[in-house]
């Protein structure tokens, strides 16, 4: 079901954001950290399939929206990566999470102190470069020439529109230096462990039932008996 949760905003204030939850009052509770931008669009159906598998296995699971993303009414250009990381920490406390799961760029936002399962983490700089590259390719196809270095310089000062995403200057600067929070106690999942081609490489959003079941099984094993 969908519930509303109080997400903090940069500079103060709170935004009522939506969260998809499978909540039956179980002891083991997983926070699914949302991947960013187009990776979220491509992987949302797969994340929900993983959540359904874990729900059937006896675990509570929550996937929160962040301010400026998905169903949020907040302007994306006002958001920062630091603000989103703070929001994820608040979400972990609000929903009483005992563990976290991150796939791809979600690993940039993992909450502090929670044991995490991480699948194919993706750093901020290559994520940003990919978005800039998509813009330069689109510009070339439209008969314009844009240079990545020039775009990034402009983005640091005034923000950028990248692949339909309006990113503010602080978000650009945050992404350029953002690394994934990976601790020795975290469980890393290599794509080879679950088989099949990575879904984030597909041109369109999709899901893979066997991959979802494999990921849910690994997560459940890490979380322990429900």
Record keyword descriptors for this entry:
226 residues, alpha/beta, globular
Order of helices and strands: EEEHEHEEHHEEHEHH
The structure class reads alpha/beta
By CATH, the superfamily of the largest domain comes out as Alpha/Beta hydrolase fold, catalytic domain
Q: What is the tally of beta strands? A: 9
CA gyration radius, whole angstroms? 18 Å
Which strand-content bin applies to the residues?
15-25%
Number of helices: 7
Major sheet summary line: 7 strands, mixed
**Separation of termini?**
20 Å
Q: Quick one: CATH class of the largest domain?
A: Alpha Beta
Would you give the CATH topology of the largest domain?
A: Rossmann fold
Form type:
globular
Any idea how many domains? 2
Unreliable residue runs: none
Strand neighbour order, sheet with most strands: 1-2-4-3-5-6-9
Share of helix, binned: 40-55%
Q: What CATH architecture label of the largest domain applies?
A: 3-Layer(aba) Sandwich
The chain-level mean pLDDT equals: 92
